[in-house]
Specification:
Blueprint: H1 19-22, E1 25-28, E2 31-34, H2 54-62, H3 73-81, H4 83-97, H5 107-110, H6 112-121, H7 124-130
Helix pairs in contact: 3-4, 6-7
GO molecular function: oxygen-dependent protoporphyrinogen oxidase activity
Protein name: PPOX oxidase
Keywords: FAD, Flavoprotein
Length: 135
């Protein structure tokens, strides 16, 4: 697509060791919030979240797998990781990537790997870590 527009020479690559490739921010409540970039950041609450993100991962490991043929990205993430992750992180992601509302977007269409990971391993985290083989 870039080549179709003749913009190959305008691409500015960002090396993996550059801060721009390691740091992620969310704009919430009129302020920028830096997201944790390492395991240590998952162990304590980081604004704009009210609790450590580690608990969202634990929630995913304990939640039962969905049974319906599809659901919204928001409903899926809320069920797996909690309301704050769905309302803040995933809503921002979907608006940036798809220019759409995560409450109206399909998890199966937008994030098929997450949908399949849950269906095959009962947990998104386990499915992503262990692969897509049958449980």
């Amino acid at each position: 697509q870039v080549s179709e527009l003749g913009l190959e020479g305008d691409i500015l690559p960002v090396p993996g060791d550059h801060p721009a490739s390691r740091n992620r921010f969310l704009y919430v409540g009129g302020a920028l919030h830096k997201l944790p970039s390492g395991l240590g950041g998952l162990l304590r609450p980081v604004s704009p979240f009210s609790q450590a993100l580690l608990w969202s991962g634990v929630r995913d490991l304990l939640a039962p797998a969905g049974t319906g043929p599809d659901e919204s990205v928001h409903d899926f993430v809320q069920r797996r990781f909690g309301r704050e992750v769905a309302d803040i992180a995933v809503d921002s992601l979907c608006r940036g990537v798809f220019a759409g509302d995560c409450r109206a977007l399909s998890i199966r269409s937008c994030f098929p790997a997450l949908f399949q990971a849950e269906r095959r391993r009962r947990s998104v985290l386990l499915g992503m870590a262990l692969g897509s083989g049958e449980a």
